[in-house]
Amino acid sequence: MSEDLQNKLDSHKELNDKLMALLPETDDLSLMALKGHLIIEESLNSLVKSHCSYPQYIVKARLSFAQLSNISKSLVNLPIHEHVFPAIDKLNALRNNLAHNITSEKADILANELIQICGTKDKGDERSTAFHVSICVCYILGQLSILSGVSEFLLTQNEDQVKNA
């Protein structure tokens, strides 16, 4: 692995570790989904800004979570993209459901769909839904960290090729 790629991955791992530390240990599905959503939003922001010449305008745009997700999809061209973004979209649906309903029968359904997309629960595992959503957030965060590092490296390589042409 090239030193440049390793540096990009290390940089994103550092952010990933900081965000992981913010994930609470709780059996409260609402808290887990809301906090996980914020953590993934920060990671998406980082991914988008790393591809911009003037990232301050991304902050100024005050993009929604869905907009950040879609812009992220448009910026990267890696196969992992097909696996992580459905989970991100489902987490967003879960968060929106919980944020706009005092009580929700649909929340458990959405949480279980997220867990199924991520493949993070074995049959017979009796740990709470909130626990498994936290594992999904970790899975998404790890995927985004790798996606961001590799995508940023490829972008840098393409820019170098254009400069040297």
Brief summary of the model shown:
The protein has one domain (3-164). Helix content is 76%, strand content 0%.
Detailed description of the structure:
The protein is mostly helical and 165 residues long. The protein has one domain (3-164). Helix content is 76%, strand content 0%. The chain is built from seven helices and no strands. The protein has helices spanning 3-20, 29-50, 56-61, 65-75, 81-99, 106-118, 129-164. Helix 1 (3-20) runs antiparallel to helix 2, helix 5 runs antiparallel to helix 6 (106-118) and helix 5 (81-99) crosses helix 7 (129-164). The protein starts with a helix and ends with a helix. The mean pLDDT is 86.
SSE order and pairing:
Elements: H1 3-20, H2 29-50, H3 56-61, H4 65-75, H5 81-99, H6 106-118, H7 129-164
Helix pairs in contact: 1-2, 1-7, 2-4, 2-5, 2-7, 4-5, 5-6, 5-7, 6-7
Q: Tell me the total number of β-strands.
A: 0
What's the shape? globular
Sketch the topology as an H/E string, one letter per element: HHHHHHH
What's the end-to-end separation, in Å?
Answer: 24 Å
What is the total domain count? 1
Low-confidence stretches: none
Work out the helix count: 7
Rg over C-alpha atoms, rounded to the nearest angstrom: 17 Å
**Rounded average pLDDT:** 86
Approximately how much helix is present in the residues? over 70%
Portion in beta strands: under 5%
Which class do the helix and strand fractions yield?
mainly alpha
Please outline the major beta sheet: none
